UniProtKB/TrEMBL annotation, chains A, B:
Superkingdom of the source species: Bacteria
GO biological process: formaldehyde catabolic process
Function: Serine hydrolase involved in the detoxification of formaldehyde.
EC number: 3.1.2.12
Family annotation (InterPro entries): AB_hydrolase_fold, Esterase-like, S-formylglutathione_hydrol
Catalytic activity of the protein: S-formylglutathione + H2O = formate + glutathione + H(+)
Record's keyword terms, sorted: Hydrolase, Serine esterase
Alphabetical list of Gene3D superfamilies matching this protein: alpha/beta hydrolase (3.40.50.1820)
PANTHER family named in the record: S-FORMYLGLUTATHIONE HYDROLASE, S-FORMYLGLUTATHIONE HYDROLASE YEIG
This protein's record includes keyword Hydrolase: yes
Name this polypeptide is given: S-formylglutathione hydrolase
Gene Ontology MF term list: carboxylic ester hydrolase activity; S-formylglutathione hydrolase activity
Gene Ontology terms: cellular component: cytosol
Length: 291, 291
């Protein structure tokens, strides 16, 4: 069993690189929520050196990723530096000794595939509580240790796009805006979602709806809607079977919930796609974080 | 023994992603020079769709890298797309069955560490001919298969920074400009260079000088100098022992060869550093490619 540190909400810096006059850093910490040691990455723009408290964009990555993929591949820091925006990228699942993984060794369950839910089923429930981690523990850590203000937005890719929209719709008071690249829009109606939600949440599919963006949109309050921007490549190999953006579009149309979904011709599911449009997303969030 | 294809100068596309309205692609091909199958990456800006022949920036990566590191991490494609510049990134060594590696398994010799020289010593000389590959075979392939003009520039990082400056100084008629991040400036006078050059070129250090940027600069023609831009982070852990930019600066001063060396405060040896300044390099090359 891992030794649990006495103090909670402490962080330890594990790497640091200057980037666009700001700083990319990785931190590790004991997560009370996930019951394991976790690592996350933060980009701090140069504005913090002048004593400014900056807004934060939380980025949730997709299947198989860690805190590193977005920070290394998205090309987001150039504009985040200019805009004075911090970016926080957590890992995509609990990790380490004693944390269970998919017994079949597939990439779409277990390590790297937390799906941003609170698991209720064994053997997952002791560690796989990524929803609470992203909604509560991580922002508390970030706001304790870094010069950030309370303005937050959230974005993500694929599984993390699902996580971002789902978390934002469940916590609209916590975020100024939400965006996603290639999100798994309707996990209760796709193979990835069925496998993960079945394992983490059990066979009762009514329990799945609390983590499904389409279901949440149907039940959302449209009087004060959260700005939502979604980019989806039409050459994405996962589009028809796993991602199903049309389900989100239909729910938003029926509900009258504003949603900007952009189909991008020729783009696939990769970080080359994300890099191509990340600056649009940063400008979108900056506008709402300032508002 | 690998079967050698009948046709030479053929390429096979192995991946493709749309990126900033252009295309990132990986190709494999049989290299006559290296006597093995090789992979390289190319970024083609959207201008080629309009039938335009675009100039090419060759990028040489550092130790342990493949064609992927720069394309995924440097954030270069945003501006390359705007400027109408192709980028070609070769691998850093021969690969595959029968290609020898460092018997001690270190990262600084053998696979991923070709040092852009033509090896003369056993067991390296049959495959390790990265100089000829980058100077001759790769440009011939690129100019045969892609809509590029004959305007070329060259850049690289660390071992690839050494490669870029060295190759440009030896072939000034082939390039409009050269730049480097954190180059190994004086490989005949640093541990990485001694190990690699000793293995590939043998004990006679006089043979090493043909691949040393400082030695080449001393013997260069200053009447028509090639524009050179070098960025070096002052928090780079390899700076004092391996990189030695002061040796290049001193040689350029003594010779009267113009050289722009920028020491960047707080930056290290990583791609976070490269990303921070790559656009300066692309603008620098674009200016000279247009000239």
């Amino acid at each position: 069993m891992t030794n649990k540190p006495v103090q909670s909400l402490t962080v330890k810096k594990v790497s640091e690189q200057k980037c666009f006059d700001g700083w990319h850093r990785q931190y590790s910490h004991w997560s009370e929520t996930l019951n394991c040691e976790m690592r996350f990455a933060v980009y701090l723009p140069p504005h913090v050196d002048d004593g400014e408290d900056v807004p934060v964009l939380y980025w949730l990555s997709g299947l198989t990723c860690t805190d590193e993929n977005f920070m290394q591949k998205a090309g987001a820091m150039r504009l985040a530096s200019d805009l004075g925006m911090a970016i926080v990228a957590p890992d995509t699942s609990p990790r380490g000794e004693g944390v269970p993984d998919d017994p079949e060794g597939q990439y779409d369950l277990g390590l790297g595939a937390g799906f941003y839910v609170n698991a209720t089923q064994e053997p997952w429930s002791q560690h796989y509580r990524m929803y609470d981690y992203v909604v509560e523990e991580l922002p508390a850590l970030v706001e304790k240790h870094f010069p950030v203000c309370e303005k937050r937005s959230i974005s993500g890719h694929s599984m993390g796009g699902h996580g971002a929209i789902m978390i934002a719709l469940r916590n609209p008071e916590s975020f100024c805006s939400v965006s996603a690249f290639s999100p798994i829009c309707h996990p209760t109606d796709c193979p990835w979602g069925h496998k993960a939600f079945g394992a983490y949440l059990g066979d009762d599919q009514s329990a799945w709806k609390a983590y499904d963006s389409v279901e949440l949109l149907k039940r959302s309050n449209v009087s004060n809607p959260l700005p939502i921007l979604v980019d989806q490549g039409d050459a994405d190999g996962f589009l028809a079977e796993q991602l199903k953006p049309e389900s989100l579009l239909q729910a938003s149309a029926e509900k009258g919930y504003p949603l900007s979904l952009r189909m991008q011709s020729g783009y696939d599911h990769s970080y080359f796609f994300i890099a191509s449009f990340i600056e649009d997303h940063l400008h979108f969030h900056a506008e709402h974080l300032r508002g």
